[in-house]
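Hi R.,

Here's the chain you asked about this morning:
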Amino acid sequence: MEIAEVMRRRVLSGVASGSLRRNDRLPSARELAGEFDVDPRLVLSSYRVLAREGLVDIRRRSGIYVAGTPPVPGGPPVVADGWVADVLFAGIERGLSAPRLGDWLRRCVTTRRLRAAVVALSADQLEGLCGELRELYGVDAVPFAPAVLDGSSVPTELAAADFVVTESAYADALRARMTPLGKRVLVATIRADLDTHWQLLRQEHPVYVVVTDPRTEALLSQAAGVHADRVKAVVIGRDEVSHVPADAPVYVTRSARQRLASTPIPGKPIPAARAFDAASSLEILRLIVSANLKAMRTP
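And the predicted structure, written out as tokens:
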């Protein structure tokens, strides 16, 4: 992965998680050069790419900062003017005028609504993945427990899906059943950008994660890696949510938010993070766009 892409994701995920704010100072080119083991000039060149996109400000003799441009209502947290211009220019290069590009892109994801089957172990995973597929990708997502694999035949509702999203433990079994039906099976790879949240583990308190399924606790430990002892799962129905320290960072899964409704949760909330990493997201989008373009070509 190019250094500019790594830095771009760090800035975007940092702003989304709240660990970075507009006008926050970023590591110097020399500091990042030591981390990446590259020439500082290469890091500075990458920072210039992000500056052209509108993500960072390079201030002479002062440093490099998260862009201070105020957000636009309904837009991204950091308004990347250059990125918007690049997208519009790419459309013009392909014969689409700037005013027409938005409608064309909308048709590429809404002409045909796809259905995804999601197979995962815990309720927190199922709700998180299904919710993200519905909200960010416009896909009808149907949850399935791993027990769907117990029989020798493929259940009708599973077979009706356009593609399947699952975790690695169930991928081979699902491919054996779904590939003969012409259905893709994607392994949901959790975003490496969630490391932004684990950086909070360096603070005084551990990170508390409110979940609905006790099985999520082991999954959290696996995701946190060497920081596993600093991640504290709070399982609704087993643990008292009110016992979370008032000054501790706390993350609430989508499933837990729905279960708790308006119940107040102590602690300093960590903003919700996306589940799919870049490779998984692109694979999902390629499936959606390919199916929609095929539908648009059909008389």
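Residues 192-269 form one domain.

Let me know if you need anything else.
M.
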